[in-house]
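As described in the Methods, two query proteins were run sequentially through the folding procedure within a single session, without resetting any intermediate state between them. The first query and its resulting structure tokens are shown here.
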Amino acid sequence: MKMVIILQEAVHSVVTKNYQHILTLVFAIKEINENPQMLPNITLGFRIYDSYFTAKSTYHATMLLIFTPWKHFPNYKCDIQDHLIAVIGGLDPLTSFHMATVLDIYKIPQLIYSPAPVMNDKTPGLSFYQMTPQEAIQYAGILSLLLHFKWIWIGILTSNDEYGDRFVQTVSPLFSQGGICFAFIERSHKQTIVSEINSMFTQGAKIHDKLIASKANAVLAYAESLAIVFLRWLSYLSEHQHVTSQEKGIVWILTAQMELTSITYQRTWNIDMIHGALSFSIHSKDPSGFQQFLENRKPLHAKGDGFILDFWQHAFGCTFPNRVTDTMDGDFCTGEEKLESLPGPFFETRMIGHSYSIYNAVYAVAYALQTMFSSRLGAERGLKLWNLQFWQSHHFLRGVSFNNSAGDQVSFDQNGELVSGFDISNWIFSSNQSFHRVKVGQVDPQGLQGNVFSINESAITWHSWFNQAKPHSVCSESCRPGFSKKVKEGDPFCCYDCILCPEGKISVKDDMNDCSKCSDVSYPSKNQDSCVPRLISFLSYNEPLGMALAFFALFSSLITALVLAAFMKHRSTPIVKANNRSLTYTLLVSLLLCFLCSLLFIGQPQKVTCLLRQTAFGIIFSVAVSCVLAKTTTVVLAFMATRPGSSLRNWVGKSLADSIVLSCSFLQAGICFLWLVTSPPFQDVDIHSVREEIILECNEGSLTFFYCVLGYIGFLAIISVSVAFLARKLPDSFNEAKFITFSMLVFCSVWLSFIPSYLSSKGKYMVAVEIFSILASSAGLLGCIFAPKCYIIVLRPELNNREQIIRRKA
């Protein structure tokens, strides 16, 4: 019993490369028929028809497949020995489409090995199966390849038909979303064996000039298998126009339907332009025994092979004796020539992708038949080959799953497309036109850990144009970190200028569309290409400035304490008693506290220190200045009270001084109390004042209250200096009025210079300015008022007596 499998193929004597498709079909059927466990009692056979690339011939050949060939009666079969089971083909997508128009009516299984997405042209549930993976997988792989090598400015060369148009419509938005731009999109006319050479040359010259003029070094070619013939025309033009490496270099990216094919008259043409191309191909392996099968193929021993003589003559450029030919010149064929000696464009001994699809298609039909006959349905119904209906095999074809002899699993998805991936090969040509495919990557949708795309750059041989360096294909050079892209008006988004990032922004990668700000805890580097962590800044005891200020505060506090101790020790002496002893003690204690309160400003700001430092400083200084004001007022009133009949005698005394100190101090304390109640100081972080630092500080809460405190101290100081200035020439044994005047001038000078210095400083230096002002003004009061008295008490005790005071007053 014989079953017929028909291979629909566009076979012509000059396309020697396609002869492998026929040999693969023969090899697969031979393996199945010789396997007793595969289809016992069933012998597979085949017929081969040519479509001649025309719809009329395709429809005619399809009708011959279905019905009795010599009767031409539709819907009648007279020969049960030649029973049609399935159709394999065709290589050209449009041919497959025409075939399906007829085969779908009868639900005849059609296994298509063209990678073109013909299934999308038809409604769901139709009776064909695609022996190639989904086109979307190939498109995603091409995009991954382009992005891997950063080829974002590419050209597209495609066929001028509906499949070329659909390819452009599909990849344009996909590639654009991935950041790819198109330098040009050129369409070539559909190439057939009967294409006119003059037309091909004219169109090739036009496209060649476009390729050379473009800045794109990467060109994606999408067309049917024979389109490679057109690429050889471009290579021919490139050779004869002497395009050197300094002028133009192209790396070709070829889709899976394009096989390296040459026609007879291109035998001597240079193929250098395609050297180094990266080709997507259907994943394939050599089945066991295939190489030996090809080596044993000889024209004198190939019984029933109607193609081998034509193939042999065109492939080897020879002629068999007694065989008439008008196109062959050269030596006679011996029949012992070796297939492995042929150049790759004419024949390959390794199984190519299309042949591998045919091999798997034959086995898919065989396994479906085996499952169908061994199923319960077949056993119950006594299923026989001659009463088998076409539609019955679809259920088993859809569910077929097997491992072929090459070790690959073959199965279909729910859309009838092969569950597989693509290989990425590097085409390498030698000077003698020998051809090698080197697998450099793959696109495997079932890759481990989601690794769908993989590429081995080190295995790729680039064209000599690129001096073995990785090709470069961009419209504009990459913008370095620190720069951003600015698209040129009217040009694609891949063409841009590089502009420096604005102040305060960075870009950390090449070709950033926009610059970004650093986080609050970092700042832009000098080149604006990274963020540098900010330093935490506050006036610390561990740094020299903090240590110096703290040392001066403690040293001044010690001096003040010694002065206070000296005055208390000599409290009974005339010089201490003569200047209101209690007021002097109060002033010394307040100065001591002034020195010590400056320590609240040093160290990391805390909640308590932020609350206390400005208020404590304001109250203590108000007490000190009030004491100075009280001393000055006492001196003035004491002199005026000595005049005869003066009514001021009742005001002179201890109570007046105490009243001045208490009233002035309590008023400042009231201001500070309102400050703490309404808007108290708090811990804060300043990230704006200093670019490189994060400043830990005390926020004053209300600047109004802060300046009210300072203003009130200044008001007291101005009154004190005014009164002291009026009393500077009053007779006094120790000239205390002059000393007070000078001390208040120092005090006012320090705080007048404080205001601009404070406002112009930032961070810890602002705190340091305030500490310095506190220490300097306190030291001025201590030194100017108490230094002369300490001189007499410690160094000149003989002057510290009543007689000397009276004498000096006189």
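Immediately afterward, the second query was submitted; its sequence and tokens are:
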Amino acid sequence: MIRGLVAALLATVATPALAEDVTSPDGRIVATLDVDNDGVPYYRVMRDGAEVIAESDLGFTFTDAETMRRNFVIENAVTATHDDTWEQPWGERRFVRDRHNELAVTFRETRDTSKRALTVRMRVFDDGIGFRYEFAESADMPVANIAEELTEFAIAGDGTAWWIPGGDWNRYEYLYNETPITGVSIAHTPMTVRLDNGTHLSFHEAALVDYSGMWLRRMDGRRFRAMLAPSSRGAKVVREGAFETPWRTIRIADGPDGLVESNLELNLNEPNKLGDVSYFEPAKYIGIWWGMIRGDWSWAQGPKHGATTERAKEYVDFAAENGFRGVLIEGWNYGWDGNWFGNGRDYSYTRSYPDFDLEEVAEYARGKGVRIIGHHETGGNIQVYEAQLEDALDLYQRLGVDVIKTGYVADAGGIISCNADIADPCEGEVYEWHDGQRQVQHHLKVVQAAAERQIAINPHEPVKDTGLRRTYPNWVAREGARGQEYNAWGRFANGPEHDPTLVYTRMLSGPMDYTPGVLGLVGAEGVPIASTKAKQLGLYLAIYSPIQMAADFKESLAEHPRELDFIRQVPADWAESHLIAGAVGDYAIFARKDRNSEDWYVGGVNDATERTVTLDFDFLEDGQTYAATIYKDGPEATYLTDKRHDIAYETLSVAKGDRYTVRLAPGGGMAMQLKRR
């Protein structure tokens, strides 16, 4: 459903070398595009009359052409306005308003040896900016072999940054650093910044298609420069003819709520290209997974093999009895024996291990009204996966498997691809980065092939989310951060501050398959998890995904019937979502409205600091009362002791204007169901 008004384009011609400005619809943000005295293109961002992004250079270097940096003038400028509202088929909110003003400036070189042109398109929203480069088809440069972008982000004030290292072996799976801005080295995006004046910023990108992912490298002081993920070819990006880069984005907000509730990257992506995607149903699932993560079972064949026909049927039975739509089954196929990490040469995506009958399990699940969630681990070997992709997807389509979790377990530069210099079929291997151009191309290929068969994709060890779920709504979630699995591998391996930090960093890019619901709070060999029981429920509100797992063993879930009841009922699809209390890295409490009823859910997560929070119910409908069922940390709850299971329950009646005060334990959280009477 599309509503609203799209204004007509207003074309203007600029005088060469004069600055061009574009202002946000509310008038608070002003972005400038200009050239300096050396003809270097740059941009600058002001908010409420104060500089937020100081003069920041724009440009490119190439492997086989002169640098695009100096000797430019402004050739022309075109402006536009836009205001409409579009509907998400699923998401944190049903309707998204896209209101922005746009400026497209074409810079032209003045040297006798080169007259190349470069267009920078800047869109300014009330909640930030996005800009991209546009290259026209050119006989002088029919192929662009990009060595690096020279895009800068010069942060104008001091502040604190939350970031993870870019270009390191473990992809995005790190605990977040909290440092002064000047303490950042090379960072993945999103990178979140809180300036000393309270302004909140997030640096990221949108619509990452056929291009390398962008890291941020601090040059000096508070000045950062784009750094593209490497490629085996030398050139980090190779593009033919006319093309556009991804959008470089900066969310700008007064506080954490504005940062979290922004739709900036979604609005910078193209509309849905797939049409009707009602075949995807947001839902919750369980799976044969936690036992492998903890080491109780194995993915490989042998006496500990997890994915047996018998165990799969038991999990299907539990799902059917408790209202879970899906059952994830990992380790069912050949290829897991031996060293598959960063290898993947032996995987078959159509051949089951002898003790697992895929056809039988799929038929059994259908009879119970349950869907199997498929699994394709590649070990980072996209050459092997792409060779089998069509057959693998056809098999799942025939069996009614309509969601697939893919995996790319390999070190950052360990993606195995075809040697582009060898004619097909590929006879050689090269190694690519997880977020390089080749892997970006691969992920979209999988998503598009799955869409043809009405299958949704949830990649782990992925390329980061950049809002492409708007264009390809079967791209429903991904991992792309340090998930719940780390809790199984060491005492407090994910510290209590990790979850509330994710809300303001990783989650700004899109849905995450974090795998909450480990109610037993125990990892491998009995190691405790840095969480209370109430926090495991709060994760369903804090870490959004349209597919939410109850990750624990089915026996453990059954041992906590009241908590299991909440997990059964909490939706995975929302009409509205609001951050009603929180601070970056400290805590986060959301209010979310069910898309399919008038009910609301409130909940979230806390760090290691005990705190008391007062919640306002101003989001509720006027004149209505709601029956509240509350799950909260008990009086002795703390992640530090065996009291982490201490949980309290409460019921009361609430209405708009009421307030509720709740204790959040160290490593704690809370959840609340509000049913309209």
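Residues 78 and 349 are 50 Å apart (CA to CA). We note this only descriptively and draw no conclusion about the first query from it.
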